[in-house]
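QA checklist item 7 of 12: single-chain prediction sanity check.
[x] sequence parsed
[x] length recorded as 549
[x] structure emitted
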Amino acid sequence: MRPRRLPLSLPLSLPPRAATALLVCAVLAAATGCASLATPATETGPDRMADTRPVRDGGTLTVALKSDPDKLDPTLASTAVGRTVFSAMCEKLYDVDQDNQVVPQLAAELPKTTDHGRTVTIRLRKGIRFADGTRLDARAVKTSLERHKTLSGSTRAGELKPVTGVSAIGDDTVRLRLSEPYVPLLSLLADRSGMVMSPKALKTYGDRFASHPTCVGPFRYAERVVGDRIVLRKDPYYYDAKKVRLDRVVYRTITDGNVRMANLLSGDIQVGDQMDPVQAGRALTEPGLQLFHSPSLGYYGLTLNIGNTKGAGEPPGRIDTPIARDVRVREAFDLSLDRALINKIVFQGMYRPTCGPLPEGTPYAAAADCPPADPARARRLLKQAGVSTPVPVRLQVSTTPEDSRLGQVVQAMAKEAGFEVTLRPTEFATGLQHARSGDFQAATTNWSGRLDPAGNIDAFAGTGGAQNYGGLSDPAIDKLIADGHSTAEVADRKKIYERLVAAVRDRHTVLYLIQPDNYVSATKDIAGLRVLGDGLIRVKEAGYTKGDG
């Protein structure tokens, strides 16, 4: 647990690219505080993941999300904000605790592995019912896992590809047969691949299940107004209902952090998700607010499209742009980016520059410094590639203030190296559709991260990966991904991932920039919240503190 500072503006000492820094600060002064260079930092103290004060029964908790979730269907969903909603209504076979360890949730114990890793046996808890009152048993788990594997458009299919068969052994035991040992499986079953849906609801609603999501959880789905709110109500069938104090949880979509903060201060919402550095710092100075923070497992970055012509997961095609044709052009773009300066200007120096997808503090993280920005070398690479400058690049950014700032900083930095970046602001859900279909040249990426290293690499860099929006396809990378799946020894596996990260970086398709932290603000009359390394706001035991009206 480490204390962190929240600089409310840039420090006085600037790196060598001061001209670019000052130019960008001039553009972004109102949003980032760059105009005031001497504002002191604020100490956050150690990580704070939970508030265990006692709470009373009743009330509605309103949580403001940074963007609108995609489909409320565990098989099809792919957004971080969607995972936050699922955490309240769709429990998994396994979960992650405050120490980033996998623990049983709907399963009764950790799985037993036999046959040299090719057979996995999971024993389920008894007496559990779905939100529609039907019983959860081994057949229900089998139905959900098979749906994850086979449903058209499933974003879980790639995750569960090594699973060749699922058997229900009696009422409370599920047996998975694998084509090969698959080390990431346990962490996947602690995420959406491990969410179990009501077979009755799946049969009743079919392809409309996302409009009637029915799982096991402390709260059950009530209604949704797309772009505005999702309403959940306490589930009387929930096996641990005695610990659930709230009557309702409402998730509202408020993309602007300043507006989320204003709503917190007015009392219109009680929790603000994914607060940016400026607003997180403000939460420490407002007497009615509190701040939760934990190290993230994810990253901010950019994805460059080099072959996604038919949609993510489909065979790559040919894209006739300089950045897609020649790796030297992509390397030049990468070399234009000063990660430390991006951290200072866009994220107030709160986060950490990175050039890989594996977060600090995990067993597989590589301790390597990122190469410094080098616009002069970037210009030489463009000359070697024989491209005319400035090289045009269309960069898709979401409409959040943080993404807008990041886009403008990238635009200014890339200009020094011989690129002309045009920003393409796009609403989050629409931007996700563009990325999946390949309708972009470059796009910002904000990945919430996963516990196992495979969860931060495979889907983005493996051929046919569900989130391989850049269309990368490299047999050497695919071989390393496969080796990482089948190697259990941590030391040996770490060496594989060091080579894998280096191979992905050499292709310059996903440009890793920043490792963030999770920051959630809440009013002080709310207790019982938990915000762990996965960044999800857990509301099972949340409520209003005793004595608050």
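[x] summary fact logged: Confidence is low (pLDDT under 50) at residues 1-16, 30-42.
[ ] second reviewer sign-off
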